[in-house]
Amino acid sequence: MKNYNDTKNINDFYRKFANNKSVTKNDLKEYFTAENPDLTIQGFRRILYGLEKQGVIYASGSAVYSIQPASSLPLKPKKKFTPMPSLTTKKVTEVFKNQFPYSNCIYWETRILHNLMTHQPRTNMIILETEKDSESAVFNHFINLGIRPTFLDPDPMTIDRYVGIQDESIIVSKLISQSPKRQKGSLLSYAKLEKILVDILVDENKYYVYQGLELSSIFENAFDTFIINQDSMLRYAGRRTAQDKLKWFILNKTNLKLRVYSENFL
After folding, report:
1. Looking at residue 76, what is its pLDDT?
2. Strand, coil or helix: what is 3?
3. How far is CA 214 from CA 7, 72, 82, 112, in A?
4. CATH of the structural domain 7-72, one choice from 1.10.1200, 1.20.1640, 3.40.1130, 1.10.10
5. Which pLDDT tens digit goes with each residue over 33-54?
6. Which residue from 7, 30, 91, 164 lies 20 to 30 Å from 210 (Cα-Cα)?
7. Count of other CB atoms within 10 angstroms of residue 49
8. Quick one: average pLDDT of 25-30?
């Protein structure tokens, strides 16, 4: 079996797929099996892992891999989105889990966007999305425990006048079903980056600080830094009736070159 830590063999790979922005898992299996007819499933998985680790390919959909341009050598591997919750977020989610152990909740915090921006806001919003009709109970429980400032689905005026002046605040709102989350099957889980990107695009009044040129920077830097599952992002955008908005934004407001242009958008 060829060693795909070897630059020569990576160059052979690029010559084969020079005109491809993406490739299916079956195409890759055919290519590597043609080179080594005795290739096992485990051997094929090791090759894929090696190529992903080096940043040559990265998963961008169901059994689909995007190919990092050869011009970007030396390769900068894309990272998995694995944010570390702040101390406040850990405290808030622990309180939620103890009081509402059987309720679904997805959470994230806006500070994870700051390193993707040109100008970093000073405020951090901790977003807790919980099951429909339970938002008020969660909000009241936090208030009774003195966990403040906490806001229940604030309107744009409240965000501008009160949320925006806080160093850190908690926003409780309704959970959108089929939201991408990091721990499948878990009742309490951090939101996936695909969800976060769609939400800040769609909920522009809530996330007004992240609009305009900053939104373009966030998308471009997120795609450059992290592994993004385009299929997952599109499905969730469809759930939010925002596929056309996402399409228009990516095509007109970013420099991204994506597989989804031809397969899903056009």
Report:
1. 65
2. coil
3. 37, 24, 22, 14
4. 1.10.10
5. 888 888 888 888 888 888 877 7
6. 91
7. 11
8. 89
